[in-house]
Amino acid sequence: MNQLRCRDLRAGDLLLKLNAGSAVNKVIALGQELAQQRNAQVVHAAVMVDGFYVVEASGGGIHGSDMRVQNKSFGYIVYRPTNDRIAKGAGECAKLMLDIQARHRNLAYSIPGAVGSLFPSHSRGPASRSSMDAAFDRIIEGKSHPFFCSHFVVHVYQFVAEQNGIPAASVFSLRDAKVSPSTLASMLQANANFDDAGYVMPNER
After folding, report:
1. Chain centroid offset of residue 147 CA
2. Whether 59 contacts 106, CB under 8 Å
3. Other beta carbons within 10 Å of 157
4. Angle (nearest 5°) at CA 20 between 19 and 23
5. What single string gives the DSSP state of each residue in the chain?
6. What is the distance between the alpha carbons of residues 79 and 134, in angstroms, rounded to a whole number?
7. Which of 17, 20, 42, 65 is the most buried (most CB within 10 A)?
8. Are strands 76-81 and 14-18 parallel, antiparallel or unpaired?
9. Domains, the chain
10. Is 10 left (phi over 0), alpha (psi -120 to 50) or beta?
11. How many CB atoms lie within 10 A of CB 108?
């Protein structure tokens, strides 16, 4: 794997954050371990919108952070879409979600919702394009729609794929509402739609 710095990152890169030792990170890692999930030390996921800014979901909603400032002390594994249209669209979609959150404050998640992501969904396959379009319309209108971090990330790539005429299931074949960061990490290791671009070391930007 290559060590990356901000100059190497691109819009649409998918970032997996490693356990940084905070109380929240430890709780997520422990929950994933108790659920017997591989890659339990992967505790968060986010989408790059350019070489410096990342968009991510937390309890308070979708927000943006500067990799050189707020997220400087965190380490990440970086996956890059092999399809340039999906990469570009993912960066744009994440930024749009950030703007919607700033306007409506409608994309926060609950603790029970985050806990629910640790367990597999009984639904098979992602939502259809029409249902994703309908959900997106409701989000734009300001209706509440909670996004846990890895749920948000998977939703972005599935939605953008469908908008480009690519079946969402070919990108991530799962019901995105219930996917933990560790499960997402495991899926990416065998996902032909993403290349393992490298890693970003804490405090090395």
Report:
1. 10
2. no
3. 28
4. 90
5. --B--GGG--TT-EEEEEP-S-HHHHHHHHHHHHTT-SSTTEEEEEEESSSSEEEEEETTEEEEEETTTTTTT--EEEEEESSHHHHHHHHHHHHHHHHHHHHH------HHHHHHTTS--SS-SPPPHHHHHHHHHHHHTT------HHHHHHHHHHHHHHHTT--GGGT--S-TTS--HHHHHHHHTT-TTEEEEEEE-TT--
6. 29
7. 42
8. antiparallel
9. 6-200 (3.90.1720)
10. beta
11. 17
CB count in 10 Å sphere of residue 179: 25
Length of the chain equals 205
Amino acid at the residue 22: S
- Spatial separation of the C-alpha atoms in residues 48 and 39, rounded to whole Å: 21
What are the tens digits of pLDDT across the range 6-27? Answer: 999 999 999 999 999 999 999 9
Q: Identify whether the C-beta of residue 55 lies closer than 8 Å to the C-beta of residue 140.
A: no
Q: Name the one residue in this structure whose structure tokens are 């259809």.
A: 128
Integer-rounded Cα Rg, in Å, for the chain is 15
Whether this model's pTM surpasses 0.85: yes
Residue 192 CA to residue 189 CA, distance in Å, equals 9
